[in-house]
TrEMBL record:
<feature type="domain" description="UPF0261">
    <location>
        <begin position="184"/>
        <end position="401"/>
    </location>
</feature>
<comment type="similarity">
    <text>Belongs to the UPF0261 family.</text>
</comment>
<dbReference type="Pfam" id="PF23189">
    <property type="entry name" value="UPF0261_C"/>
</dbReference>
<dbReference type="InterPro" id="IPR051353">
    <property type="entry name" value="Tobamovirus_resist_UPF0261"/>
</dbReference>
<dbReference type="InterPro" id="IPR008322">
    <property type="entry name" value="UPF0261"/>
</dbReference>
<feature type="domain" description="UPF0261">
    <location>
        <begin position="2"/>
        <end position="176"/>
    </location>
</feature>
<dbReference type="InterPro" id="IPR044122">
    <property type="entry name" value="UPF0261_N"/>
</dbReference>
<dbReference type="InterPro" id="IPR056778">
    <property type="entry name" value="UPF0261_C"/>
</dbReference>
<dbReference type="Pfam" id="PF06792">
    <property type="entry name" value="UPF0261"/>
</dbReference>
<protein>
    <recommendedName>
        <fullName>UPF0261 protein Gferi_15695</fullName>
    </recommendedName>
</protein>
Length: 403
């Protein structure tokens, strides 16, 4: 029988984890408690001890206690918890996982959760869940619940919050996922608000052709999530219309997806159609958060929380070089589509980011650097959101997937 994993420091938060265990087991679900505490004695007997976790992390609990280095102990127990959890999953014992904690406990718990595949229920009750959770969630489907009060004892408020979290984990674990009527090949597509018309039209066409399309919001984590699913073998084709995350990676915006963006499809050798969607913009937060060195640039208040900055000619040249180098490594069918009349809804004549010189620098660099023996270059005299452009890109991907 699969069980709910409970991962946490039983020396400092034993009472709270015992409460979680009791609530889960009151529903008829069984648990496996994993102790990640280092110094103190466990408040109750775990199923997997901190000694076992430390060994899995490459050390011993005695060595960690003797050295008394909190940073090293955190690293060992984090790595060990992830290995223990993954081992249990591979043995078919995991129905779901729940943890709770402050910043340290959240780090350990979420790293353990990230070791599990997408789809396995994951609940993290955290004192830091109302802030920036990207370092903890990454690209996995972790449900973060803000603890409201510190996790210190069981009181009238924490009792309700921890109960809700436990019941949520049980509900997800017991729930039956409706089976799809027919398994369809998965296509990953990238979209931004300023490329929505293009991706929507392409998605509709691809769905009509019998494909299932996963649309990823190109906000950093979106691109990272798509790359991860491609590398895991879930996605069979890519419509990477919106490569804007490279602008933030290059210039220092807030929506970067990391230096490995645009690599997974090339490595896996799956068909990919790539374009230059939203390469006209770098993303920052509210206007007042834009770094001082950029205040004189062409800025556009997209909404109260997002300010866009037009990319320069020099930045577009570098973006062209980067994208070319990524695509030239491809092991599979690849096509690069260039929309010559604009790369976003606000990069057209009369719009705030209209930049024919900047786009020419981008397109010329791509033309000069793309390896035509590996990458098919297709230029269209439309903007990126033109229906003809969207359909041409979608049809090219279908053609390559059929081949």
């Amino acid at each position: 029988m699969k069980k709910i994993l409970i991962v946490g420091t039983l020396d400092t938060k034993g009472m709270e984890f015992k409460f979680i265990k009791d609530v889960v087991e009151s529903t008829g679900m069984e648990t496996i408690v994993i102790n990640t505490g280092v110094k103190g004695a466990a408040a109750f007997q775990p199923d997997i001890s901190n000694s076992q976790v430390a060994l899995a992390g490459g050390s011993s609990i005695e060595a960690l206690i003797a050295k008394d280095d909190r940073g090293e102990a955190m690293a060992v127990m984090t790595q060990g918890a992830a290995k223990v959890v993954l081992d249990l999953y591979e043995k078919g014992q995991v129905a779901g996982i729940i943890s709770l904690g402050g910043s340290a406990g959240t780090t350990i718990g979420c790293c353990a959760m990230q070791a599990l595949p997408i789809g396995v229920p994951k609940v993290m009750v955290s004192t830091v869940a109302s802030g920036d959770t990207r370092p903890y969630v990454g690209v996995k489907d972790i449900t973060m619940m803000y603890s409201v009060v510190d996790i210190s004892g069981i009181n009238s408020l924490s009792r309700r919050i921890l109960s809700n979290a436990a019941y949520a984990a049980v509900g997800m674990a017991k729930g039956e996922i409706p089976a799809a009527k027919q398994e369809k090949p998965l296509i990953g597509a990238t979209m931004f608000g300023v490329t929505t018309p293009c991706v929507t039209k392409a998605r509709e066409y691809l769905e009509e052709q019998g494909y299932e399309v996963l649309v990823f919001h190109a906000t950093g984590t979106g691109g990272m999530a798509m790359e991860s699913l491609i590398a895991s073998g879930f996605i069979k084709g890519v419509l990477d219309i919106t490569t804007t995350e490279w602008c933030d990676e290059l210039v220092g915006g807030i929506l970067a997806a990391g230096p490995a963006r645009l690599e997974a499809a090339a490595k896996m050798g799956i068909p990919q159609v790539v374009s230059t969607g939203a390469l006209d913009m770098v993303n920052f937060g509210p206007y007042e958060s834009v770094p001082a060195q950029f205040k004189t640039r062409n800025l556009y208040k997209h909404n109260p929380t997002i300010t866009l900055m037009r990319t320069t000619k020099e930045e577009n040249i570098e973006l062209g070089r980067i994208i070319s180098s990524k695509l030239n490594r491809t092991n599979g069918p690849t096509a690069l589509f260039l929309p010559l009349k604009g790369v976003s809804l606000i990069d057209m004549e009369g719009k705030p980011f209209y930049g024919p010189e900047e786009n020419a620098a981008l397109f010329d660099t791509l033309r000069a650097n793309i390896d035509r023996s590996r990458v098919e270059l297709i230029e269209m005299d439309t903007d990126i959101n033109d229906e003809a452009f969207a359909l041409a890109a979608a049809k090219k991907l279908v053609e390559m997937m059929n081949q």
